[in-house]
Amino acid sequence: PGIGDVLAAGIIAEIGDIKRFNNEAALAKYAGLIWNKYQSGNFNAQDTSLVKCGDQYLRYYLVEAANCVRVHTVRFKEYYNKKYREVPKHQHKRALVLTARRLIPLIFAMLSKGQIYQERGVVSI
User: Fold this and answer.
1) What is the pLDDT along the chain (125 residues), one digit of tens a residue?
2) Per-residue burial over 92-121, b = 16 or more CB atoms within 10 Å of its CB, e = otherwise
3) Dihedral sign, CA of 11, 63, 86, 52?
4) What GO terms in the biological process aspect are recorded for it (predicted)?
5) Do residues 124 and 112 touch, judged by C-beta distance below 8 A?
6) How many domains does the chain have?
7) Which domain holds residue 54?
8) Which of 40, 76, 97, 98 has the fewest CB atoms nearer than 10 Å to its CB?
């Protein structure tokens, strides 16, 4: 959805064989689109940073793809705007990364099932 040939090729190349990942959470972890957890007793930190591990190129491609889909797809634009308004600082970066994380289940499903994206859903090729 709004992702060009170069970004799509980069994402596919960095992921490799999708069968390596059991689920979309494993793919998100591989891409480094998860957050550090800081907790002690009943305390859970809310404002944490992204983990530093993961495939930096895949993360780059996914964040760039999120930037494209927020412009071209209504569903992702609404999600981006919602996340943008939630916090007072680092709004754009945070909203882009969360939108990229939202792309992971879609990409995982398309690659594992061999389907292409259509606005109303996915269809077999």
Assistant:
1) 678 899 999 999 999 999 999 999 999 999 988 776 766 777 666 666 777 788 899 999 999 999 999 998 888 999 999 999 988 888 898 899 999 999 999 999 999 998 887 766 544 55
2) eebbbbbbbbbbbeebbeebeeeeebeeee
3) positive
4) DNA transposition
5) no
6) 1
7) 5-124
8) 40
Nearest-5° angle of CA 54, CA 64, CA 96?
80
Q: Helix axis angle, 5-15 relative to 56-72, nearest 10°? A: 140
Contact between 3 and 63 under an 8 Å Cβ cutoff? The reply is no
User: Residue 31 belongs to what H/E stretch?
Assistant: helix 24-31
Beta strands in the chain (DSSP E): 39-40, 43-44, 115-118, 121-124
